[in-house]
Each structure stands twice: as C-alpha cells, then as structure tokens.
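Appendix B. Raw example, untouched.
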Amino acid sequence: MVVKVIGAGLAGCEAAWQLANRDIDVELYEMKPHKMTPAHHSTDFAELVCSNSLRGDRLENAVGLLKEELRRCGSLILSCAEETRVEAGGCLAVDRGGFSELVTRKIRSHPRIRVISEEVTQIPDGPVIIATGPLTSDALSEAIGKYFGETGYLHFFDAAAPLVTAESIDMNQAWWQSRYDRGTPDYINCALDREQYEAFVKELTTAEEAEVHGFEDKNVFEGCMPVEVMARRGFETLRYGPLKPVGLIDPNTGKEPYAVVQLRQDNAAKSVFNLVGFQTHLKFGEQKRVFSMIPALHDAEFVRYGVMHQNTFLQSPKLLDRYYADRRNPMVAFAGQMTGVEGYVESTASGYLAAVAMAAKVQGRNIPDFPKTTAIGALGLYISDESIENFQPMNINFSIIQPLEKRIRKKAEKNLAIANRSLEVIDQLVAKGI
C-alpha cells in the first residue's frame, strides 16, 4: 500500500521519511517549483522561511526537550539540522540553504519515496497525510474547507525578519557576544542609547506599512509578532523583548546598553545576518529607512526585506485526534503548522507522530502511545483537546506537559526533572521499536 504525503515542508519530509523507513512506499507531492508561495525563495524542500533558528537546545527549555526526543526517535529533520549547524550560543541554528539542500537530497535518494512535482487541489483518498503548511494553496485550502465544513478553518498573520550582509555592518559600533556569555560569542550586538532608542521607536511606530488584506494587530500570532506592532504596545516593550540589553556589555563603554539589537548568522559563511525578532510588514523603503537608524546598521545592505503572510490553521480540537488524524476518517491525517502547532520543531514533531501512527494503521499494528509526559505526545494532546474554547497556535511549553507528582521549587530544576522523565519514556518506546 502507498501512503500519499502532500507537501514537502519540514512536517511533510519528516512524515515521508518515517513512513519510508518503516518499509512503506510513499508518494510525496510538492507543488514547487511549478508553483511558489510568496514566502518561499528556493525550490528545495523543508525551506526555513521565518528564521534560521530552531531555538533553544537546553533540556530546561521545552523546545530543547522536544528536539532531544526527536533526535532519539531518528528524526530526519534533526539529523540534517545537526549536519548543517552553525553556532548561535544556546540555540540550534543552521545554514538555511545547506539544510534544505541536504533534506531534499536525502528525500529524493530514498528508494521508497517517489517525489511528484505537482499541485494537489483535492484531498486524496487515504491513506494520506496533508502537510501543506500555513501557506496552503487556494485550491487545496478550499478543498479542505469543504471537507471539514467552513468552520474548520481559522487564520492568523505572521511575518519574517530582514537580512543584511555582514560586510555592511559597522563593527566599530557593534560587538560579538552571547547573552550572559553562554557558549561562544555568536551574536553581533548593536547598541542604542536612550536618545537613539527614543528616535527609533518613534519612527518605527509611525512608519508606513505594506497593505496586507485582512490584517489587524489582534490577528497577529504572539510568537511571530511584527516589531512595529510590539512597539505600539508601549515605549518600553521592545526593551523587554527583542531589544533587551540584559546580560550584554558594550566593550566601548564597559556598561550595559539602554537597548540592543542582536544579529544572528543566516548561513555557514557568516556573510548574511538576520535581525533577531525583527519580523515586520513595513514597506521595503520604510524598512531601509527605519532600521538604518540603528547605529551599527547605518549603511546596512539589505539582501531580503521582511515580509508578512496570512497563515491558515485548522480548528483542530474539533476535527483531529491526538495523532493528527481526522476523527471521522483515521486514514486521513494532517501535520505541520496547519494543525495549530507553531514553530519548525513543533511541525516536525507533528509530522513524525502522524507518520508513526499512519504506519501502524497501514501495517495493522497498535499505535504507539506517546503520553502527555512526553513533549511529542503533549503537542498531539493539546491540538486535540476538545475542552479548548479559543484554540490558537501553540509552541511547545512545559505547561502542556504533565506536571511532576512531586513539587520542585526552582523552575530550571523542575523543568530538567520533567525532561528526564520524558526521555525515559522515549527511550522505552524506541527500545520497543516504534
């Protein structure tokens, strides 16, 4: 039996890989390069659009735990991320181009995966996993809407940050350091004094925005909020967010700056840098004007401006089970951000679990139980929790993982204990041959 996987993003590639490695033939459909979305720039699979960072890598951090679970479960995405890793302090960041190229090469070379380059406009008969992401084509979006009924779809807006060339950064007004000197100094830090910060915020809050149909501040996902929207929430908001200076010392003054813009490398050659937390939908000319007010970026060369997209997701608690399958038809499953998991790692986890469950169904085996004590299982249980009244996209966090039976006062120690408990369960599942 052949399982169809629709979409070759992170969730789709992970799903295809897990199915194929369980001796199941896979047809992987991807509409690129014949049809591209506004957010994509490459014809390779698993393209990272919003940021090159796969976020924190410490077990005291929920996404660090999720990544470690996926590593132990044989994740394609995590193995490719490790092979193309670039330094970013305590985060897992990759050379975006190298990462996507490696995922694409491994998928195309797998003997059980056949890649079909065409757009899918109708939901195929199962078994199928639909992982077309938050930028699903209009035709397939309409088909999914009809499949579930129009109430099955919601949407929100998110945005991508601009990129600048390394050689255009004024290093006389910037320095290398990771916050609190954790790990290697992998970030370029651009300081602003109070006067510079005040002028920057004033221009940022009044700059002209690109028109995005249907956009309102209230529809923005909190985890990917445009920097100008944050600035409108209050003068000090950015200083407690992406421009937080805590843990950084400007070598030019020997003091903590009033505000700091951090830049993170976007490729292995360190020739292009991402403005951390600067997702935006300002007009391109306004981005150049306002962001060049940052002293170290006065002559910055922008190789990509920030862009904004309307992302669509399912009302999953009403529609999907804990394995991301249609409650009415378990041979039709969904994965990725369209299910309401938010973030690259979370999307990968959903693709992994949807595929493991689909493989078990196809092969007549019991579906492995990923309980709420694991991050992988907790995500699936969150998106399928029918008691949630106002469902919104969710990053992995410790609040949705089953708490410990004993109380531990210190947060880091408590989180580490939860992580160790989770990894014991994962190791048991792996030992059973999930």
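End of appendix B.
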